[in-house]
Amino acid sequence: MLQAGVELAADEPGGRDMRGWKTQLGLVLGAVMVVLVAPFATTEQPKAEGIVISGARSLSDEVSVSYTRHRPPRDRTTDLHVLAFNDLHGNLEAGGSNIYGRFAGGAAYLAKAVKERQAEYRGRQATVFAGDNIGASPLANGLFFEEPIVIASNLMNVDFASVGNHEFDKGQAELQRIQRGGCRPEGCTGAPYAQAGRRPTNRYPGADFQYLSANVTVDATGKTLFPAFGTQRFRTDSGRKVEVGFIGEVLEATPTIVTPTGVAGLTFGDEADAANRAARKLRREGVDTSVLVIHEGGFQTTAALNGCAGNLEGSPIAEIASRLDPSIKVIVSAHTHAEYRCTITTGGVTRLITSASSFGRILTDVTLTVDDRTGELVAASAENTIVENALNTPGTGVVRQPDVSREDPAVQAVVQQYVTAAAPLANQVIGGIQGDLLRAGSPLGESTLGNVIADSQLAATAPADLGGAVAAFMNPGGIRADMRTTDQSSGGEALGEVTYGEAFTVQPFGNSLVTKTMTGDMIRRLLEQQFVGCGGQSTQRILQVSATFRYESDAAATTCEARIGRIWIGGAEVTPTASFRVTMNNFLATGGDGFTVFNEGTDALGGAQDIDALVAAFEAAGTTGIAVPPLDRIVAPGTV
Q1: Which pLDDT tens digit goes with each residue over 8-30?
Q2: Runs of H (alpha helix) within 481-519
Q3: Where are the alpha helices (H) located in 125-270, listed in sequence order?
Q4: Backbone dihedral angles phi then psi of residue 306, each to the nearest 5 degrees
Q5: Which of the following CATH numbers is that of domain 6-386: 3.30.980.10, 3.40.50.1110, 3.40.190.10, 3.60.21.10?
Q6: Helix (H) / strand (E) containing 412
């Protein structure tokens, strides 16, 4: 490796400007082995300039970064390891999750993979996850208030965790309980709780790992909700002790994707600014090597287990990395459910950045090579590994054959405990489907499953005494899984039958329905808020609508107003002054996902839970099952 530079095993093409930065991105067009010289920056906070994002082209390529030492080397280094995963979302069971042609994931299988490496590295590793360990969970975890996956994580010997946006689904008080322990008003319904090296307890014990939240502060005090960082001490080959800092964060935009009650009383700050404050404090405490564990990320253009195809082009994590303190050279990212292994070079500093997909399907192993004498980071590399869980491979009509040799027995016992407890409800058949109901949208953003859910919510609130609704809206982010005729849970239901557990996996949040009065003008401005830059919207989100609602959409229009054409409710064209009773969930009702126009609605009336409305729709469909609805509710201008 170059003494004063960076060595990459292979490079991908670069990206474009990030988040409004006006500098031109550098492009790297490499073959198999390309070396970039990037001297270490000495400024406190590097100026955002040309950003070069690079990575492996094939699974065999290495991605490693070497750094100039500030002090004369003594040629004594030690390899430390960071084991990382993210976005587990309470997935206790392996189920049918797959990735790269392999059945993968599940808590017991992830635990076995983690523990094997912990045993190999002994005291020279730290285990972390980058948020969304809880929230949007399947029934076996959600029914017990997210406690089971925390118990499983405790048994995995996790050390630190960044908060994710879903950690805030039930508000800060509940998240503090998840950390500290204690029973809910309903009691400790998940008892007994397994504990590593101790007898089980009937009181929820809380998390053995420490949540970190450098950029989340409590409004009244200005203090961070959880510590901004934690440190881990390691013994080097020469017997000296060194410390590594772990800074935890969540995306600044969390309030736009979490129900307002979930983030009440909290402020979410700029990620780079908060990380830099933490890094400076760590340096004052003598910790020169920091790892940023952050619930924010990017995407590759073409999936590759250890690749960087597309170079995270345009991603928020690239912009954040461009403004980080030079002492932060390794980033464990998350949120997008993507997997990648990249480097980001900006301001003269090259950083290693990783992500491990979701649901425990991938484990990242980061190697930190540190100077024995100073603890300074000398080099960093990483590898993503698939967490396989079966004896066979996925295919049409293929049922996974569990590979029990890959299960961790202690965690599998926890999985079995809660799956068994939830089974009477989870395995209850609620109806059937005539064809696959999918989340994937049409070119205009309409989906078959979104249509079914919106219809179910309208049916639940249409009676005069339940709201008198004439239309319903559903946020696409609240639809967490597809419904396929070939899906089968552990309940033994027939193909095409749907169980309560499967329906709960689609809608796991327990949101309540709300019906409000809205004018035609409000509805038009609401629809405009589906597009970036319109009404404060930061991400395109196309609302799913009931069969009583139809409108013209032109996403290519140059103004927000021009993107929405004519609107019809019940077949009649909507005028600005007309009033309508419309239904949405309580997340949307308070302005969630940036749909602030919902706040203007009046005469709110609460209703049933969304999952109950969906179950009722299946029951109403009877033995024929729910048909696949046509995608004709969002139409191009002039087609009606």
Answers
A1: 222 222 333 333 333 332 323 23
A2: 500-506
A3: 139-142, 147-155, 172-180
A4: -120, 25
A5: 3.60.21.10
A6: helix 409-426
